[in-house]
Amino acid sequence: MDRIRQVFIFSIVAFASNFEYGFSTTYLNTPVEEFKVFLNESFTKVGRTMTESTYTMLWNLILNIWFVGFIIGIWFNPLLNDKFGRKIGFLVGCGIALLGAVLRLLAICVYRPELLIIGRFLTALCEAITYQSCILYLQECSPTHKRGMMTFLSEISYSSMCFVGMMLGTRQMLGGDLIALMTFAIPFCAFFFVALFFLPETPKFLLISRSNLPAAERSVRFYHGSDCDVDTVIKEIILEAEDETQTALSWKSVKELFTEPHLRMAILLSISALQNTVGLWSMLLSSTYFLEEIGLDEAVASWSSTAMTLGYTVGTLAGTTWIERIGRRTILLSFTIVDNIILVLYVVCAELSPVAKQFKYCCLVLLILYAFVYGSGVGPISWFISSELVPQKYRSLTQSTCYSLNSVIVVILTFSILPLYRVIGSYAFLTLYTTPSVISIIIMYCHLPETKGREIHEIVSELRGKTKSS
Asked: Which sequence ranges form a coiled-coil region, renumbered to this chain (predicted)?
């Protein structure tokens, strides 16, 4: 019963962040024509005519304002989550997410595209906060032996909502009625916002940052179950709290991330892991274009993103079965290598597709397989590994640093892939994704410690050189 209760509680935490995050990632992908009609009618109602160039510029702004908001939101994380607490950061983020969802609906109702842009910007900003709050909650509240599986819930919730957003955007469902599509998320955002009020702060924040032992003990009982050994859990948190008498909110602390060898190594390893997540963005956003370029029928190609997202979702579900059985290091390295092999095979099949048409269908299968392997190990571990490599006081700051650098890389490579693809074809994947990934694999192979089933203070000690991996 305690296990079911734990999964339910941590699922609430995961979906509180990723319901809106995943939905917002994909709801624009399938109802493109309906949004084009909306933009045309918006211009007509104010006596203006929308040209093709205006549409392209406006649509790109609607799509890419997400990255601007996300990068800005990342840096609110240390302030909110470290100074005021993980719960306050989560609540602020979910409250803004609800506001963003309402603005999106209002934009459609009154034909004001600028409200859609503002709503999307606010949603991206708040999701950068709530996603990091979510990872901190899952890492700091779950029992050590279940930490990987519980953190996997974040990727499961995100991938499933990407799939829901993609499916709801089709004409067969809500894609033909943008008001219904925009209304869908609002009651769920409100529910998760209210639900967070009933969740205690994380025990590690309460004990390490607030020195509130009674509240930390109550939090441990709430998240670990009534039959857990509270004293043992508290002792492990105290070990992690050694030498952490202040929070990492000063410029000195930012400097320490790059001057202290073990923190610098944690940053390098986290960015190396996140480098392997970059390719999926381009696949999700532009897979239809890539498949059409190799000669696949438009109808088949247009469903490829949905099929990829389904493969991604199934992969995250499969990953929960081995995340606590196999080491994080083993999964991350081996699955990343497999994903790179799949990408190389895709390039080979794409180049051979003019010779034999069967190869273009192989490309579709390989894209789905790529997403499955990504979801079953590469993506989930890459996003939470930074939280397992640093002490509690540096955790939010490390997340913000790594996520912001990764977001910049995503923007650069996502904008580069299509122009480069037009010049050198599918070899662009090898240039932009495979080559950097191989470098990251070498770095992780040489320096990444195993984190499965280990307390954070043990992992940090190994990075400091005090202990060796067992």
From this structure: none
Q: Phi/psi at 325 (nearest 5 deg)?
A: -100, -35
* CATH number, position 64: 1.20.1250.20
Distance in Å from the first CA to the final CA of the chain: 33
Closest listed residue to residue 196, CA positions, set 287, 91, 271, 293: 91
Residue 280 CA to residue 289 CA, distance in Å, equals 14
- pLDDT over 70 percentage in the chain: 94
Integer Cα distance of 203 and 217 in angstroms: 7
For residues 135 and 280, state if they share a domain: no
Task: Give CA–CA dist 18/138, Å, rounded.
Answer: 13
256 or 65: whose pLDDT is higher?
Answer: 65
Domain of 215? Answer: 203-241
- Per residue in 75-115, pLDDT (tens digit) is 887 778 878 888 999 999 999 999 999 999 999 999 899 99
Helix%, strand%, coil% for the chain, nearest 5: 80, 0, 20
Residues whose CB is less than 8 angstroms from the CB of residue 455 and which lie 6 or more positions away in sequence, other chains included: 144, 236, 239, 240
User: Among 188, 216, 241, which residue terminates a domain?
Assistant: 241
